[in-house]
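Review box. Two proteins, two foldings.
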Amino acid sequence: MTRKFQIERYSNGQSSLTTDQLSVEEPLLVVVNGKPFATLMRTPGEDVALTEGFLFSEGIIAQPSDLAGIETRQHETSQEIHVELAAHCHPSETAPRSIYLSSSCGVCGRSSIDELTSRLDPILPLAVDPEFLLSLQTSFAQGQQQFPVTGGVHAAALFDITGDLLSIEEDVGRHNALDKLVGKAFRRGQLPLKNKILLMSSRASFDIVQKTAMAGIPVLATMGAASSLAAELANASGIQLFCFLRNSSVVNLR
């Protein structure tokens, strides 16, 4: 989703008035069992998938049967999505409560990193040739619809071992793009995503690796750098982590 804004462009010492398309960023209030749970700053669209992916990565739900209902509601000044959990499913006492998640924050509000990582299952390794990863860049770029227009969104793309692009999502928040992708797989009953490869336009932050591990994806490649904690989590969970995927080079963090 984009929105037109008037801008003044400066170039070569000259200025001109024109219009430009900006990526939309708006809050989405997630209400769980009638109580405000989290506010997600996201690009509108695929809100159900975003919410399901977010709740899955937070350990609130594990399978579609954990949801009794999910409904989007549009108010005059806000957008909300209401989730009713199945009777057997209850939010963890350590899960976030009424937290604000910005478009650059993925695990804000967690009580501790130890609690977050304790529920990650080991992932079966997948051998990937770096040259194969480099070959995926064309499909990755072609699959992005909003970035060429605004330059203001991140992308998360899922590939199979033959190099076919299975799914791609864009959002102003890198973790939102991944939650949308995982949320769709969750709804289809495709988790864990074994023998799949995830490409991200962002850096490899801890939250991106955590969500990758929760989804059971064995290979993660990002356009940007990795943080030390992200690399440690990747090693601990069995994820092959590649960074600086650009043109003809890539870095494999071991």
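Next protein.
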Amino acid sequence: MLTAKMVKDCAIRGGADICGIASVERFQDGPPETHPTSLFPDARSVIVYASRILKGSYKGIQEGTDWSTYWIYGYGSGIYSSLGSATGAIAALLEEHGHEAVPSPGGHTLLDEAPSAREPLGKGRLPPCVMLHMRVAAALAGLGEFGWSKVFLTPEFGPRQRFDILLTDAELEPDPLLREPICDRCMACVRECPGRALGGERESIRVEDREFAWGRVDCGKCKVTHWGLNPEASPFIRKDLPGMHMEVEKTTYTWYEAYRLGFALSERIDYLKLIANGSAEHGQGGRPGSVCGAVGCIQACNEHLEGRGRLRGGVKGKGNG
């Protein structure tokens, strides 16, 4: 008989560092475009697993010498290869026990910052853009909580991980929600963000008897900075576009406008063009890379949490289970 422990052990052996499980009932109050059964009507359990972002991948940005290591090992094949291996291993295990396994391309912006939804495929159908919210799913699977920056925090790695999701019709025992808070509202993320994107109006969700809260993110300012178009976050725009004087705190881009701006300007900024071409070669769609280095939302947060001894040290397999 398939058990939750078998699934989580498989995820760890397959390459993930932590794994948790949520029941679909925990998603009942969410919008339909982010509900598991809108993507897979027979879903009964949501399996969420993560691989850590190596601390060393930030070193080149910290020293001002190499911006590529974070893009390669924090975003690219360096981390998603392990997640992909875990996905294959879990899916195979589920299918061997007669269950379906449906991967979900989870997102982080709850669709409200993305382009307008397309028309439904038929009467009574949702538009073809159903996407689970990655951080909500991770919280409901008991893996951690939202930091004030909205970046997800786990007891093992703080803000340093990326997630994948599998939906299944197997009824698996869900993990309990995290009870002990990780974020202590130190606001280091807000102070150190070069995009001035963090610390907005309080937002929250309530599940069972637990509330998860964070500060609203200005996704336009975040994306402009993420792409390296904010001169306070990277040196490349000053070098190749010396006449462009962007004051990020005055920008009013939406997430999608900033997203498109990054694609347009990456052709005119040598380094951004280089890593965009590199991402195309690795099957990542030719996107400009993450140049900001997550200075506030990840680096400053991680330094604070480690300094306060609030993390477990990141022993592989020490997640729920």
